[in-house]
Amino acid sequence: MGQPAQAGGESPSLGVGHVRDYLALLKPRVMSLVVFTGFVGLLLAPGSIHPVLGTIAILCIAVGAGASGAINMWYDRDIDAIMRRTQGRPIVTGRVDGEAALAFGIVLSAFSVMIMGLAVNWTAAALLALTIGFYVLVYTMWLKRSTPQNIVIGGAAGAFPPMIGWAAVTGDISLDSAVLFAIIFMWTPPHFWALSLYRCEDYARAGVPMLPVVAGKAETRRQILLYSLLLAPLAVLPWGLGTVGALYGMGAIVLGALFLLGAVRIWREGDGPKAESAAKQLFAYSILYLFLIFALMILDRAWTFGAAA
C-alpha cells in the first residue's frame, strides 16, 4: 500500500490549525449522524439513566465513531490520495502523520470502550467495541477492497449506535433496538450506491469494487430500487411494535414514499441526461431522510409525554 508524499517536508506546528486537522480525522459529519441515532436509541429505551451517565454514553459513542474514522483514514491513505473527494484529507496532504493518526485512533478506541464499560455498563461497551472492530477490521481492511457487497455488509458498523444507546439504559438489546439497527442497515446501500453512481470513475480509478464499477450502473439502479422498497415499510415497523406512536408512523410513511420516488426516478432515468442529477438528489435526500426518521422518533416521544401530562 503506497504512502502518499508528505506536503512540504516540515513537521506541522501544534497550533489551532493542527488541532483542526486532528478533528477532521474523526469525520465529524459522519460522527454527527452516529451520535444522533445513538441518542435516539438512548431516549427511546425503557427505563431511565442518570443525565451524567447518559452524556458519558453519548460522548463514548462519538469518540468511538471518530476513532474508527481516524484508523480508516490511516488505512485508506493510498486510495484517498487518488479519489477526488478525499484528496484533501489530513493524512493525504501531509498535515497529519499517518502513524500518529493510527495511534490517535487506537488510543481513542480503547478509551471510549473502557469509559463506557466502567461508567455505564459492559453490554454497551461490548457493542461499542464490536462497532469499532467491525468498521475497521471487517469493512475497511477486508470488505471495502474485496467485494461489491462492501457497503451491504459493512453497513452494520454504522447501524449499531441506536443499539448502543438502548443498551446504555437497559443493559441489554431487544427487538425494538434491533429494528432501529435494521433501518440504518437497510438505508446504507441505497445511500452509498446513489453516491457511487456519479462517483463511479473515482472508485474505479482507486480500485474500489463498488457495485457500479463491478456490476454496472443498470444493476446498481435496480438494487437501489430493491433496497428502497424494503426500507420504506421497515421504517414504519417501530410504530407497529409500539416503540413509537402514530405521529412517527405517519411521518415515516411519507418520508419512505419520497425515498421510493427518488429511487424510481433513478431507475427510470437510466443513463439519460438527468441520471447524475437524480443520483445526487437521492444521495442528498437520503441523509435528510435518516435524520428526519430519527428526529420524528424524538418528536413522537415528546408529543406522547405531552399528551399524557
Automatic annotation (TrEMBL):
<dbReference type="InterPro" id="IPR044878">
    <property type="entry name" value="UbiA_sf"/>
</dbReference>
<dbReference type="GO" id="GO:0048034">
    <property type="term" value="P:heme O biosynthetic process"/>
</dbReference>
<dbReference type="InterPro" id="IPR006369">
    <property type="entry name" value="Protohaem_IX_farnesylTrfase"/>
</dbReference>
<keyword id="KW-0808">Transferase</keyword>
<dbReference type="GO" id="GO:0008495">
    <property type="term" value="F:protoheme IX farnesyltransferase activity"/>
</dbReference>
<feature type="transmembrane region" description="Helical">
    <location>
        <begin position="30"/>
        <end position="49"/>
    </location>
</feature>
<dbReference type="Pfam" id="PF01040">
    <property type="entry name" value="UbiA"/>
</dbReference>
<comment type="pathway">
    <text>Porphyrin-containing compound metabolism; heme O biosynthesis; heme O from protoheme: step 1/1.</text>
</comment>
<comment type="function">
    <text>Converts heme B (protoheme IX) to heme O by substitution of the vinyl group on carbon 2 of heme B porphyrin ring with a hydroxyethyl farnesyl side group.</text>
</comment>
<feature type="transmembrane region" description="Helical">
    <location>
        <begin position="224"/>
        <end position="241"/>
    </location>
</feature>
<feature type="transmembrane region" description="Helical">
    <location>
        <begin position="150"/>
        <end position="169"/>
    </location>
</feature>
<dbReference type="GO" id="GO:0005886">
    <property type="term" value="C:plasma membrane"/>
</dbReference>
<comment type="similarity">
    <text>Belongs to the UbiA prenyltransferase family. Protoheme IX farnesyltransferase subfamily.</text>
</comment>
<dbReference type="InterPro" id="IPR030470">
    <property type="entry name" value="UbiA_prenylTrfase_CS"/>
</dbReference>
<keyword id="KW-0812">Transmembrane</keyword>
<feature type="transmembrane region" description="Helical">
    <location>
        <begin position="122"/>
        <end position="143"/>
    </location>
</feature>
<keyword id="KW-1003">Cell membrane</keyword>
<keyword id="KW-1133">Transmembrane helix</keyword>
<feature type="transmembrane region" description="Helical">
    <location>
        <begin position="175"/>
        <end position="195"/>
    </location>
</feature>
<feature type="transmembrane region" description="Helical">
    <location>
        <begin position="96"/>
        <end position="116"/>
    </location>
</feature>
<feature type="transmembrane region" description="Helical">
    <location>
        <begin position="279"/>
        <end position="299"/>
    </location>
</feature>
<keyword id="KW-0472">Membrane</keyword>
<feature type="transmembrane region" description="Helical">
    <location>
        <begin position="247"/>
        <end position="267"/>
    </location>
</feature>
<protein>
    <recommendedName>
        <fullName>Protoheme IX farnesyltransferase</fullName>
        <ecNumber>2.5.1.141</ecNumber>
    </recommendedName>
</protein>
<dbReference type="InterPro" id="IPR000537">
    <property type="entry name" value="UbiA_prenyltransferase"/>
</dbReference>
<feature type="transmembrane region" description="Helical">
    <location>
        <begin position="55"/>
        <end position="75"/>
    </location>
</feature>
<keyword id="KW-0350">Heme biosynthesis</keyword>
